[in-house]
Amino acid sequence: MPQRETDNLMDYSTGTELWKYQWDFIHNPEGGWHIFEDVEEGALITDESEILEILDEIKEGYENGEDEVSFNYGTEYLYNSSVDIGGDEPIKMQINLDHYQQETRINPANGEPYPKDYIYQQSGNYTALSFEGIGSGGTNVVEIIVEEDKYDMLHQFLYGEERFDHVFLSDVQWYSQFDTIIGCNGSACCCIACKYILSQYSGYNAPQNTDNNVAVLKFENDYTQLLPTVKFTSKLAYLVEQLNQGNPVVVGVHYARTDPPYNANSATRHFLVIVGMGYDETNRQNYFRYYEVGTNPQYELSRGKNELNKLYLDQENKFISGYRFYDNRYYTITEIRKNE
User: Fold this and answer.
1) In 3-state terms, what secondary structure has residue 118?
2) CA gap 147, 127 in Å, rounded
3) Of 36, 42, 265, 339, which residue is least crowded by CB atoms under 10 Å?
């Protein structure tokens, strides 16, 4: 390789970096330069800023909705024992780049976790956020390795929010608000149907709360404006908690209508049962899956329980909303009722 083409201190350039075997020689000159001993060739103990530069490329690419980011480093393995990504204390991190001295291209949204048992000559429980290379035929070309219990911190740093675990309560029996067993006239029976589904599955009720502490959103000025309340965060946490415990939850939702509201919470127009949650890789958002009771019994699978029944979490603006897939009715959660 010609001189002065890397950032290595020994390359007669202005660089300040040293490869791992060079550090070994400095600390133990009599031990020799064992380039291939217990470490991959080209491993680099690098400055924290080099690690953060790669993380920021991935983070910014994801935030901007880019399908591709690229790197071109002359080092195959980057390591630093003290990388600050916003936790209580810095963490150790290693980044592996498969395309050595070539352009490495990845989709920033397509990282997947894989277990690892080492990081820079240290054995233990580690997790790698791995990215397939664009045009690589399925080969992982970027790996960001951290201690197993620090993986969520890494993920949150890159993607801004913790991904929901996949939960679907598939054994919850669906009913239509038009089913005769509900014992209602059908046209205004959505809440009764939802509470029936809940009671049949878990024995819980979902009573109306008169002091409105179940309301996630409320109307201001008129019934077409929705604003989050201060209870959004706590009610969101309750919804996630109940699903993780295996309990469906009755929620009220708003959708556009021109007539005055008639429910106790004036933002609520309809009721659904939340039966699952997860992370949508395509939309890059957490979502909640629901049962739609406002359809006829013959549409149980095609509409009532369809896997496309999803409401997406907008954490920043404090909304949980989405289009009903078969007619584009736009639902926004307005209340999350407590299981009692």
Assistant:
1) strand
2) 6
3) 36
Shared domain check, 139 and 66:
yes
Asked whether 113 and 130 are in contact (CB, 8 A), the reply is yes
End-to-end CA, the chain: 71
Report the percentage of the chain scoring pLDDT > 90.
49
Nearest CA to 337 among 287, 256, 226, 263?
Answer: 263
Q: Could you report the per-residue pLDDT of 195-227, keeping only the tens digit for each?
A: 999 999 999 999 886 555 567 777 766 666 788
pLDDT, residue 41, reads: 44
pLDDT band at 274 (very low <50, low <70, confident <90, very high): very high
Dihedral of CA 135/286/243/270: which sign?
Answer: negative
Burial grade of 9 (CB within 10 A; 0-12, 13-18, 19 or more) = middle
The DSSP bridge partners found for residue 68 are none
Whole domain around residue 175: which residue ranges?
A: 167-336
Q: How far is CA 280 from CA 189, 224, 270, 283, 311, in A?
A: 31, 29, 25, 6, 11
Looking at the structure, do residues 154 and 188 belong to the same domain, yes or no? Answer: no
CA 69 vs. chain centroid, Å, equals 20
| Distance, CA of 159 to CA of 315 (rounded, Å) | 12
Tell me: do 198 and 315 sit in the same domain.
yes
CB 76 within 8 A of CB 40: yes
**Distance between CA 317 and CA 307 in Å, rounded?**
25
Residue with tokens 């209340």: 335
